[in-house]
Design goal:
iron-sulfur, five-stranded mixed barrel, globular, 4Fe-4S, 460 residues, Rossmann fold, iron, OB fold (Dihydrolipoamide Acetyltransferase, E2P), 18 strands
Length: 460
Amino acid sequence: MGKKYHIWTIGCQMNVADSQRLGSELEKRGYEWTDEVEEADVIVLNTCVVREQAEQKIYGRLGSLKPLKTRGEGGPIVGLMGCLVGVKNPAPLRKAWPWVDVFMPPSEPGPLLAYLDGREWDYDAYYEQVKQRQALNAMQDGEIVLPAHVRGKQVTAHVPIIYGCDHVCSFCIIPYRRGRERSRRIGDIVQEVRSLVEQGVKEVTLLGQIVDRYGYDVPDGPRLPDLLRVLHDIEGLERIRFLTSHPNYMTDELLRTVAELPKVMEHIEVPVQAGNDDVLRRMRRGYTVDDYRRLIDRIRELVPGASIITDIIVGFPGETEEQFMDTYNLLAELKLDKAHIACFSPRPHTAAARWEDDVPWEEKERRRKMLDDLMHDIMAEINSAYLDQTVEVLVEDLHKGKWRGRTRTNKLVFFEDERDRRGDLAQVRITWTGPYSMQGVPADAPPKTPVLDMENILTP
């Protein structure tokens, strides 16, 4: 029997991309993917600690692996990767979880690959690279061969273009866990995207904690608009998206580039986090509510018809009912296409963790549900405008007997078709809309012939 690997992933799209690339590297060493963790010779947990709930899931999963590791000779190699490891010395983690063999910083497979090759990995050199803003992770510099179990089936892919973050918001653990900003070389990104397209990928989403700061860490370096223009020329690539943006770096040049390039989708993800200036100041976001309003107006002016998605944190330390209602009223006013809403949870090493977490959990949940209910109605209203419209859908896969894909504005669409539509840019007429998805029929489908009840027709 061949060697097998299993990767469990939680968290952001960056982690999804990192796990897929790690799987590719393991397959180069002769490993095969397995869904069954008990069968795996190598088990990796790729972790997220942005929210306390995610962190608790990781602890539970780590505990479940201990019996596998301690059952005797021939136990699996266990690796821990991602933000739980961070960019600090993993010695405390080794003490807490002695059954874990390898600790890998975010987006960095080096320690595991060195372990499998019988080599020592130089953590100190890695930490110095992070401090010096050097682009890391040779695994992602250039061509990538997708893991065998998704190769030829994957229509969309995530491509990291900038690691780390320098914008130290008071609630966010990412700068501490992922280190300083490091932009990848534009040539390496292009080479990776070309290799993905050659393997059947039609759409790429460019990733960064603050993706619109791409190139800001490089003196006179290229910026995101420059990268978009280069990627736009890749033959066979149909669509380009990018996320997540920060309001302060969403420039008019970037928005005009989105509007000008047909392959770049009219889909902007730009978090506001709160609708009150005092809360935004304590969050260290660096803009006001009116700044955000003006940005939304600019997006809608420069990229007509764009979908706009935001993030909200409720129950931030000190947030009063009045301040929360400012957020509620802002969402009601702006009518954005979607909002990712989360309850505040204090994260170690952040400024907000030192403040009193004075909004009870039940109150946080009440506020979250209020915003969820509001967005449900707004999303239903926005999507209803698509009824009877014909839209372009990039078909990703078959789900419960229906083809599933997304519009240019990232709306989820399902439709039935006996043909193999995976990877197609299908024209779909929308026949039903809801707040979270839509249903349709192929625009080129022949009309259904009505079934006549001949018995009733012929009966006097």
